[in-house]
Every structure is written in structure tokens, then in C-alpha cells.
Amino acid sequence: MIATHAAVSRFSSIVVSSRTVRRSSSHVKVAPKRPSIAPKFSLDIKHIRENPDLYTQTCVDRNYLAQKDNPQRIIHLFNAWKQSQVDNRDVRRQSNNIHLQLGRLQRKEADDLRGSTSDEQDELLLQAEALEPTLTKISEAEADINDEIQSLAAELPNLTSQDTPIGKEARVIDYINEQPAELKTQFDHVDIGKHLDLLDFTAASTTTGWGWYFLKNEGALLEQALIQYAL
Known about the structure:
Elements: H1 2-26, H2 45-50, H3 52-61, H4 70-87, H5 89-108, H6 119-155, H7 189-195, E1 199-200, H8 201-207, E2 214-215, H9 218-230
Antiparallel strand pairs: 1-2
């Protein structure tokens, strides 16, 4: 009897614990998945159209000579797209009116779902089918124009700051610290280590050989800090 009671107790504890696990697992929040691609960049086509000379000069200054005519080409394509909108306004208006009339007829015949369509509705459907190839051709042509505008705009370089010097010669604006007497153009780790008194090449060359160095002062402290951080 005691053994049976112990077995029941163990079984009860297992059931309770399993329920607890299942209950707790139901409250686990799953982190939202991140998108697998970067967000699409946005181009200010209107600003390019309104300032073509600025973008052309930027292409020249930044040596993007192959793209210097892109702003004018964008303006030309935009005018072609706008003219297409004007020329095909009547076709689109006619198509919209046909769909509006079809919607009214379908609402009137909603009570008789199995009935045949009226002659007026058949005529409107024929007109819509006749206009569909023309509208498709117009939409595809305008989409091609927009795609070409986006492609030309994406080739343009970013606008440079007015403080950026033009040309190949660099211009020193200011020094962060005191102006050095002799400005060296390049610094390697040897120069930096000797200047800050962090590396000792002389002592290391007598003990280990040429090319080795000892860390000292803040250099040794930095190494120990990195080791402690890694551990």
C-alpha cells in the first residue's frame, strides 16, 4: 500500500510538472523574423528634375562623366510620361465609365444570381474587352518609362557638401590638436608606439631578436584589460 501510494505520488508529480512545462512553454514569446533583404532605397526624382544643373555639376566634380547627362534624360522621359497621361486620358475615362456602369447593373441584378446578363451588360463587357489591349499597352509603356527614370536616378552620385574641395588637391581645414612642426603623411604602428611610449623595440631586439617588441605603460595595461575582458 505504501509502495502504491508512492507510485501514485510520483505519477502525480510527473503529470503536474509536465503540465507546468506545457503551460510555461505556451507563454514563450517568439522573436519576430527580420526581413531577409534590405529596405528599398528612395530617390527624390522631383528634386533631380527641378535641379538638373546641380546634379550635372556634381557628376563632373566627382568624375561621373558617363552619368552627367542623366538629369536631362530624366526630364525628357518625365515629359514623355506626362504627355502619355494627357494623350490617353480619354481612353482611361472611357474605361472607368464602363466599369462604373457595370457595377450599377450588377447591383441591380444581385437578387437574380442565376439569371442571364442583360443586353446592356453584354455590350459593356464587349467594350471593356475591346479597350483592355490598348490600356495594357499604355500601362506597360508608362511603366517602362518609370523604370528607366529610376535606373538613371540610381546611377547619379550623392550630392557633395559645399565645403568639400573640388579637385585632386586636399585642403586642410583645421587641426584637432596643436599644429605639428613637420607633418608626416603616413604613420605606422612603430611610429605610434614610439611616440606614445607604448612599445620597446630596443630591449626586445637584445632578448628575442629583431622585429619583436615589449609592451609597456598603457600598452601593457591595455593588453591585460583585453585578456581579462575575453576571459
